[in-house]
Design brief:
CATH topology of the largest domain: Glycosyltransferase
CATH class of the largest domain: Mainly Alpha
Structural class: alpha+beta
Number of helices: 26
Strand order of the largest sheet: 1-3-2-4-5
Helix content: 40-55%
Number of domains: 4
CATH architecture of the largest domain: Alpha/alpha barrel
Strand content: 5-15%
Distance between the termini: 58 Å
Number of strands: 19
Length: 685
């Protein structure tokens, strides 16, 4: 019996009871007559001549829970909704296409957005009113949901023509945003603009950008690391290091169980919004790995390893795939699972140790959050910790972790999303390669095997979501782009040609399904997907990088790995299509700018010719993995015919004198073949 069944065993479920989405199931026993998104609901709205009340959210969204408790479990609200509207619930993580369109509507109408997202629309899916969270009654200058519902029901009856006209205007505006394309060039000026924008909003005191709330935005840091590497700009590295250290010190990092929360509500990174998302932890672990590779500072390695520990322990299914998220709330209270009192710490650790822990992690009788404590290291000098103290603190952490594990855990959203799994697989493959950790590589391979074995339908179509044995929703652009990204990382980690081959295959499918043949760029949903009021094309790199940004960098990497100039042309086409949009604020497109930087830097193309098990081959690969080479590509030529069929130029690069041989080309110039390790090392650094 699930927790939903226990709570709701005396209630009558609505139509969401037959869904697999944890978010929809959370609302299955509301008195609101919820419908899943589908033709049945729209047909009902037309037949009954009612407007549609569309509510979009996700299972670990705190304010979604609040609105459910206040409004959707309220019999009076439900009565109005059921009488005058057809109510539809959508899980934004399963239907990013619907969410993207109606979030754009909300932002256009109100100037802001967020979740829960509330949309009123005609039975033809045309929106006419939008908002986010509404309290039950009007207060604090915010309209209450009861007043809004009654007002819109009245207008639907009395001013129908105005509503329909308004909805048509809104839809035309949204369509116009997606169809206007001015092809332009992009170059170094835009790259420097992005850097200068980050520099101008960098918080010198606490790291990160701006004041509060503060989001980790790891792709901003990824761009800055590469900017530093290429332009030798020390400030770029300083911004990255300060931010990575400050985020780890703050309460946004779980110092007892590891992993990062969604964002910080304050400028110091102290008080998080306690939900933990797979994508944040995937992207953050990758940037900590990259910071270690760039600087050699073992601190970054340790943080990445802690994130990987959290993912393996709490977010991995028995089959090896990764779950989506953990809630901020437990027992109806945000953060309750994570907070500690001084008294609790003293009881768990005992008189002899608790003062050391409390002094170190800022645990006080007064507390730093609503009378309780979020363990943190803000203001602590991490370099002053000696080995003996570190060992003692780790033992204390383990005891506090065991104590905390006995609490009621936050709800875990156990659906498997292809896109987010792609990000986590990429991070583990990369971490395994740089840390020389076979366990991480095995985890990445196992998860990829799950995706390729379970998330592709009988027509060869990548699917978006898996839960309880069911796959659903045709894969979106992010699913393809993030999976290809993971396959490229797996290839450069294992040199197993099957990963490179699959990356090319899925990339080809992606272009067939998502490419706008008229204007260029890639649509969010496929040509075979449900036809919505508009087909969006997104380039904004928000909480996760956009599918278009990731696809662009993927194609540049694949072009160089396989000597395929057509893929390079596709990538350059992306820069032209999105240039005018990106130029409005380059720093909001950090991953896209990373792809642009990659396209402009004459990176090294390295081919190692030799057998994988040979010591000389291993030594050269180790040398590569110990050097920060963000603009390089590496191919291992073992004489495998399947690699030759992918990259015809490989054949000519053979081992010389029976020894492992390295071929290095850069900026249209190839060096003499190298068999000496020391010479090889000098030529790649």
């Amino acid at each position: 019996m699930t927790k939903f069944d226990t709570i709701n065993q005396n209630r009558i479920p609505n139509k969401l009871i037959n869904e697999k989405s944890p978010y929809l199931l959370q609302h299955a026993y509301n008195p609101v007559n919820w419908n899943p998104w589908g033709e049945e609901a729209f047909a009902q709205a037309k037949a009954e001549d009612k407007p549609i009340f569309l509510s979009i959210g996700y299972s670990t969204c705190h304010w979604c829970h609040v609105m459910e408790k206040e409004s959707f479990e309220n019999e009076a609200v439900a009565a109005i909704l059921n009488k005058y509207f057809v109510a539809i619930k959508v899980d934004r993580e399963e239907r990013p296409d619907i969410d993207s369109i109606y979030m754009t509507v909300c932002q256009a109408l109100t100037g802001s957005g967020g979740w829960p997202l509330t949309i009123f629309m005609t039975p033809d899916k045309q929106p006419f009113y939008a908002g986010t969270y509404f309290p039950v009654e009007s207060k604090y200058g915010m309209p209450g949901i009861m007043d809004v519902l009654n007002s819109i029901a009245e207008q639907w009856n009395d001013k129908r023509e105005d509503i329909v006209k308004s909805s048509e205007t809104i839809v035309e505006h949204i369509k116009g945003m997606n169809t206007r394309v001015n092809r332009e060039q992009m170059g170094e000026e835009e790259i420097h603009n992005a850097y200068n924008s980050f520099k101008s909003v960098f918080d010198m005191n606490y790291g990160g950008f701006g004041s509060s709330p503060k989001f980790p935005s790891p792709h901003n840091l990824k761009f800055l690391l590469r900017y530093w590497k290429n332009y030798k700009e020390p400030k770029a590295l300083e911004i990255v290091e300060k931010t990575l250290e400050a985020m780890h010190a703050g309460g946004i990092f779980d110092h007892i169980g590891f992993g990062f929360s969604r964002y910080s509500t304050d400028e110091k990174w102290l008080v998080p919004h306690f939900e933990k998302m797979l994508y944040d932890n995937a992207l953050l672990s990758a940037v900590y790995v990259e910071a270690f590779e760039a600087t050699g500072n073992v601190f970054y390695k340790e943080v990445a390893e802690k994130i990987f520990t959290y993912i393996a322990r709490d977010m991995t299914s028995p089959e090896g795939a990764f779950y989506s998220a953990e809630d901020a709330d437990s027992e109806g209270e945000e953060g309750k699972f994570y907070l500690l009192t001084l008294k609790e710490v003293a009881l768990v650790l005992g008189e002899q140790f608790y003062k050391t822990y409390c002094e170190h992690y800022n645990i006080t009788g007064k507390g730093n959050f609503e009378g309780r404590n979020i363990p943190n290291l803000i203001g602590m000098d991490s370099s002053s910790k000696n080995e003996d103290l570190q060992e003692k603190l780790e033992k204390m952490r383990q005891r506090l972790f065991e104590y905390r594990e006995r609490r009621i855990h936050p709800y875990k959203d156990d659906k498997v999303l292809t896109s987010w799994n792609g990000l986590m697989i990429a991070a583990l493959a990369y971490g395994g390669r740089i840390f020389d950790n076979s366990s991480y590589i095995q985890q990445a391979e196992k998860a990829m095997d799950f995706i390729l074995s379970n998330m592709i339908n009988e027509k060869g179509r990548l699917m978006a979501r898996y839960r309880e044995g069911e796959i659903a929703h045709l894969g979106y652009l992010e699913d393809y782009a993030f999976t290809v990204h993971a396959l490229i990382e797996l290839y450069e980690t294992t040199f197993n040609v099957k990963y490179l081959s699959k990356a090319l295959e899925l990339n080809e499918d992606m272009l067939k399904l998502f490419k706008d043949e008229d204007q260029g760029g890639l649509f969010l949903y496929g040509i075979d997907g449900e036809k919505l009021i508009v087909r969006p094309k997104d380039i904004y790199d928000g909480a996760v990088p956009s599918g278009n940004s990731v696809a662009t960098l993927n194609m540049l990497r694949l072009a160089r790995l396989t000597a395929n100039s057509e893929l390079e042309k596709e990538a350059y086409g992306q820069f032209e299509v999105f240039a005018s949009k990106v130029k409005t604020i380059e720093s909001a497109h950090a991953y896209f700018m990373t792809a642009l930087l990659y396209s402009m830097v004459p990176g090294k193309d390295i081919i190692i010719s030799g057998q994988e098990e040979d010591e000389e081959t291993k030594a050269m690969i180790k040398e590569i993995n110990s050097t920060y080479l963000p603009f390089a590509t590496v191919v291992l030529n073992t004489g495998d015919e399947s690699l030759n069929s992918i990259n015809s130029e490989i054949k000519t690069h053979k081992p010389l004198q029976g020894k492992t041989t390295a071929y290095i080309c850069e900026n249209f110039n190839c060096k003499e073949p190298i068999i000496d390790l020391q010479k090889f090392s000098q030529n790649i650094s």
